[in-house]
Amino acid sequence: MKFTTLTASALAIAAATAADARDQIQIAGSSTVLPYATIVAEAFGENTEFATPVVEGGGSGAGRKKLCEGVDENTIDIANSSSRIKQSDIDLCAANGVKEIMEVRIGYDGIVFASDSNGPDFALTPADVYNALAGQVAKDGKLVANPAKQWKDVSDKLAAQDILVFVPGTKHGTREVFDTKVLVKGCEDSGAQALFLAASAGADDEAKKKDAEKSCMALRTDGASVDIDGDYTETLSRIAANKNAVGVFGLSFYENNTDKLKVATMDGIVPSVETISTGEYPVSRPLFFYVKKAHIGVVPGLKEFVQFFVSDEMAGPDGPLADYGLVPDPDLAATQAAVEAEAPMGPLE
User: Fold this and answer.
1) pTM value > 0.85
2) Domains in the chain, ordered, with CATH?
3) Which tens digits make up the pLDDT trace of 290-311?
4) CB-based contacts of 45, cutoff 8 Å, min separation 6
């Protein structure tokens, strides 16, 4: 598609800030947001007078931590994130002098379960995934160590195939969505959460709930569940070497590897841009990036890049990000207005 060159606004260079020695935007974080940010960065470099931003991965948590290291040329300008910023990140930022952060939601993505393209079909539910991967499961009204060896042990509708699932490591934003929307939901649906609540020694209902959710997210340690700390390409290579394995991916990564992967349904719904945008597919999440406001007006092109990223031409339904798999945000206009106003995020709800 054709892009229009953006006119640069006057940049007030703050001589007292070391960041003015750098003329290239620095971005790090989520492997899920990485390809979208790379597409935008390359288009930005080609269609404006500004340098092409440097985009690196490392994981959502690592990116937010880098953002919060301080305000100078040795710290990044933007952190990509496939989960929302945490209060601990905000506190770290404040402690290091990063007082204002802009939260920019770029759209939505889905979490999918996929296996080798030549393997059996998987029709999963959150309870199936929980009963396959949890350390403890409900059996005859009691909590027991997970005895399931094959998927058919979880449900007679599933394959007689050994359970081996590559799940995102704890530094990935994908892991948070996996934990909350799959494991905790499956724990509740299977009846295990009620047993964890009954067994909790928490002082009040809220403490008991937190204890139970923590227990629901505890995975088995016998090799059936394997954390992947790298990006989705590592998960894909693991499946190539272990044809019976199932991996957790972002929707856009799966859609770009349909020749190698077969996707599972979740609660009978096939993950797609359409089913995520309508809310039918149950395991989806918003995607964000976070901007260090103190670097706007100091690092050339930073605000212009953010505006370019969330423009209709890039992030809208007919833009290249949607072509790559991003589910456009129906509230994109509100995000554009907040970026124009350089509005910092308020307290977390």
Assistant:
1) no
2) 18-109+286-340 (3.40.190.10), 110-284 (3.40.190.10)
3) 999 999 999 999 999 999 999 9
4) 51, 52, 53
